Amino acid sequence: xxxxxxxxxxxxxxxxxxxxxxxxxxxxxxxxxxxxxxxxxxxxxxxxxxxxxxxxxxxxxxxxxxxxxxxxxxxxxxxxxxxxxxxxxxxxxxxxxxxxxxxxxxxxxxxxxxxxxxxxxxxxxxxxxxxxxxxxxxxxxxxxxxxxxxxxxxxxxxxxxxxxxxxxxxxxxxxxxxxxxxxxxxxxxxxxxxxxxxxxxxxxxxxxxxxxxxxxxxxxxxxxxxxxxxxxxxxxxxxxxxxxxxxxxxxxxxxxxxxxxxxxxxxxxxxxxxxxxxxxxxxxxxxxxxxxxxxxxxxxxxxxxxxxxxxxxxxxxxxxxxxxxxxxxxxxxxxxxxxxxxxxxxxxxxxxxxxxxxxxxxxxxxxxxxxxxxxxxxxxxxxxxxxxxxxxxxxxxxxxxxxxxxxxxxxxxxxxxxxxxxxxxxxxxxxxxxxxxxxxx
Length: 441
Ligand SMILES: C[S@@+](CC[C@H](N)C(=O)[O-])C[C@H]1O[C@@H](n2cnc3c(N)ncnc32)[C@H](O)[C@@H]1O
Prior knowledge:
Layout: E1 5-8, E2 11-12, E3 18-22, E4 25-29, E5 37-43, E6 50-57, H1 83-102, E7 107-109, E8 120-126, E9 129-134, E10 137-143, H2 152-166, E11 182-189, E12 196-203, H3 210-222, E13 227-233, E14 244-249, E15 253-258, E16 261-266, H4 279-290, E17 296-300, H5 306-311, E18 317-322, H6 325-338, E19 343-348, E20 367-371, H7 380-387, E21 393-398, H8 401-410, E22 414-422, E23 432-439
Parallel strand pairs: 7-22, 12-13, 17-18, 17-20, 18-19, 20-21
Antiparallel strand pairs: 1-5, 2-3, 3-4, 5-6, 8-9, 8-11, 9-10, 11-12, 13-14, 15-16, 21-23, 22-23
The structure holds S-adenosylmethionine.
S-adenosylmethionine (SAM) binds at residues 270-272, 301-304, 306-307, 322-324, 327, 350-352, 372-374, 399.
């Protein structure tokens, strides 16, 4: 343990933490704003070094958090900052980078709606609590009765599910003792359709037990969800809404509309968590491709075929790749149904493990690739394939704009034409971006 240190917060970083300096070293603090004073000490060494805050003197003007759990829950981390500042702190380093290195003015689309925006929340079920993880502590759950960034429907359904589980002593899974079965409750809601899906994730051992039969009867009586799914996976797995499943009510998916397109979203598949906050990205895609002379869409990390369905009308051939089976099936079915006269091919493919062979493209020089990878980025295999391709345009959509920046720098055959930052995730450090890239001739 080291001596106490006192720092004054001088800046806020992209993770929305206050930054203070002590003897030339920078330290970051959650919930701290410029002007605050923090007394702290550290324990452990190098990578295991942990900062322990002894006193946080709030000397700045802060916002009153919208949520009662804000200072405990690991979900949001910036409710103490005015929204306009949150957006600037998140995007500013990248705005400066693109201006200095690419002579580009970034396009900025801050959020229009900063509460009640998420269409999906995953609540962990522990014997002592149902809620979200405490910041920095995977094993501790903050008991949550309502969450301000999810819909009113989801808050009511959360209340119902919490009451329900209370009546089943021993049902929540105990991670240490390995007793009980229920690990997660996932609530998914279509803001435009009001369709809803509640997913209970259990340990495999729960399937077809007498307990399950009793629980099903109760769930069906009390839950207000249009669709209810039970899914089962390995005890040790901490992945919610995945594995074998049983439909308890309705379907294994729910419906959502985006830009007048109807989507069915399977229980285990990705869907934009805040479609409305994502509109500026969609608008950029549409404006760009509407003016191009291209005939082929290559939808990489296509999920349920979100981009293909929305923009397929601009193309003659549509190809999509993705590694979740249910998503690819859904994508193929929906895109083929909507664009019956076009050549459509969707394939399950691990874009990280394997190099995609682009020889199937009849007309690579008339192709647009939309690249929408998970947080871990597009990966070196795909970047190298694209770099040597003849594809003239790439629209790289990212939920990790800092990593996107590094990957763009590696795409040496492409020039960055424009970049836009949008914010579907207020109060969190997350945001989205779209980079328009054009091949250097
Ligand atoms: C950010 S989501 C985008 C999905 C889709 N474009 C959309 O907007 O709904 C990233 C997608 O990448 C898929 N994915 C993750 N790892 C992958 C991999 N190794 N190979 C292919 N797809 C992967 C995920 O299943 C997810 O559907």
